[in-house]
Amino acid sequence: MEYINSKKRVGCVFCVRDLGGEDEERRVVYRAGHSFAIMNIYPYNNGHLMAAPYEHAPCLTRLTDEILLDLFKTTRLCVEVLRKVYNPEGFNTGVNIGAAAGAGFEEHLHVHVVPRWRGDCNFMPVLADTRVLPEHLDVTYKKIKAAFEETGREEQRQKHFAHRKPDSPAR
Questions:
Q1: Where are the beta strands (DSSP E) in 46-143?
Q2: How confident is the model at residue 126, as a pLDDT?
Q3: Are 30 and 37 in contact (CB under 8 A)?
Q4: How do the domains of the chain map onto residue ranges?
Q5: ∠156-162-163 over CA atoms, to 5°?
């Protein structure tokens, strides 16, 4: 009912560069220099994330090497965070380029990162065209956002200590 009664967005759901104040509402969990991670609000499984560049482009060939590198570093970070939060047995990651390939938003490239477990598919999608998620999206958002923040703090600590000389005291 929340979705049915909500105000529908106009425009590209992945164009969030200048909308930092709307991160929770839009389910943005992480921002990097050229890309970001966002929750899929129609997930295949709990924790289904998407990494996307800020650049509005329909295909990998339209992105610079710098943006591509940042995008796939963000994708890798999504996998790391989901491992910490949900401990999945595997992942589906992929890019659908064009409607014929299954792209729901073909005008803005994005990478799906879907945590998977053996037996995570059940009869509900087949019989009722319905997905069952054991956790509310708000709970999922808070868990994943906190894990991204903790991962960022850990990376900063590692960078700090990596630049110190072995004999110099910690600050």
A1: 49-53, 90-95, 111-116
A2: 47
A3: yes
A4: 11-147
A5: 100
Task: Enter the pTM of the model.
Answer: 0.79
Q: What is the pLDDT of residue 152?
A: 76
The architecture of the domain spanning 11-147 is 2-Layer Sandwich (3.30)
Amino acid at 121: C
Interval 112-158: pLDDT, tens: 999 999 887 754 454 445 556 678 889 999 999 999 999 877 766 66
How do residues 70-119 score in pLDDT, each as one tens digit? 999 999 999 999 999 999 999 999 999 999 998 888 899 999 999 999 88
How far is CA 139 from its chain centroid?
Answer: 15
Q: Backbone phi, then psi, for 95, in 5-degree steps?
A: -125, 125
- pLDDT, one tens digit per residue, over 9-20 is 567 888 888 766
3-state class (DSSP) for residue 44: coil
Catalytic (active site) residue 163: no
Burial of 68 (0-12, 13-18, 19+ CB in 10 A): middle
E runs forming strands in 1-157: 28-31, 35-39, 49-53, 90-95, 111-116
CB 120 within 8 A of CB 87: no
Give me the catalytic one of 48, 56, 108, 110: 110
